[in-house]
């Protein structure tokens, strides 16, 4: 399995992960649950109207943390906006519950993919494993 698929599978398994952004010198963190592999990239989804989106536009460096009860995952990297309609459609097909809030043509739905990502799987019993994508 590709690195990016392994990371996405972990995010899918936990269901909820935590996305940290920076707002000037103030860290901001919140729960997220969207994830998609498309064209070999790991995407997450948000709304352009949200503060989180504005923070990423100003400073694309983010970190994600997730824990499955045994292992935890930290993904650091940059998030890049992708306005390709097809990737929005793919996200809504994977997670149909999003259709209650987003539409590919609403001018709000935003797909962001990781660039220069480093994903580290850690546990109390095994050496950390770093994947890049
Ligand atoms: C379990 C869970 C999953 C969530 N997943 C997402 C998500 O994938 N994308 C999103 O934009 N908001 C998601 N939210 C809502 C955000 O956490 C919420 O809008 C948050 O306030 C956004 O951060 P901000 O206030 O800094 O903009 C989720 C909330 C919960 C409780």
Name given to the CATH architecture: Roll
Helix content: 10-25%
Overall number of structural domains:
1
State the CATH superfamily name.
Answer: Electron Transport, Fmn-binding Protein, Chain A
Number of strands: 8
Question: What radius of gyration results from the CA coordinates?
Answer: 14 Å
The ligands found in this model are: flavin mononucleotide
Helix-strand blueprint:
Elements: H1 3-14, E1 17-23, E2 26-32, E3 36-38, E4 41-47, H2 51-58, E5 61-67, E6 72-82, H3 85-94, E7 109-122, E8 129-132
Antiparallel strand pairs: 1-2, 1-5, 3-4, 4-7, 5-6, 6-7, 7-8
The chain binds flavin mononucleotide.
Residues 16, 28, 30-34, 45-47, 50-52 line the site of flavin mononucleotide (FMN).
Concise structural overview:
The chain contains three helices and eight strands.
Q: What does this protein structure show overall?
A:
With 133 residues, the chain is of the alpha+beta class. It has one domain (3-132): Electron Transport, Fmn-binding Protein, Chain A (Pnp Oxidase, Chain A, Roll), CATH 2.30.110. It has 3 helices and 8 strands; from the N terminus they run αββββαββαββ. Strands 1, 2, 3, 4, 5, 6, 7 and 8 form an 8-stranded antiparallel β-sheet that branches. Strand 7 (109-122) and strand 8 form a beta hairpin. The structure holds flavin mononucleotide. Flavin mononucleotide (FMN) is lined by residues 16, 28, 30-34, 45-47, 50-52.
């Amino acid at each position: 399995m590709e690195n990016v698929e392994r990371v996405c599978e972990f995010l899918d398994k936990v269901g909820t992960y935590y996305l940290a952004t920076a707002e000037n010198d103030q860290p901001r963190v919140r729960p997220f649950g969207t994830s998609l592999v498309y064209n070999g990239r790991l995407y997450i989804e948000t709304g352009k109207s949200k503060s989180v989106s504005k923070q990423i536009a100003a400073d694309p460096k983010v970190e994600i943390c997730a824990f499955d009860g045994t292992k935890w995952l930290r993904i650091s990297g940059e998030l890049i906006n992708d306005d390709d309609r097809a990737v929005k459609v793919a996200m809504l097909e994977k997670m149909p519950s999003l259709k209650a809030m987003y539409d590919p043509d609403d001018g709000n739905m935003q797909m962001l993919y990781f660039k220069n990502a480093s994903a580290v799987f850690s546990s109390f019993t095994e050496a950390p494993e770093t994947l890049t994508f």
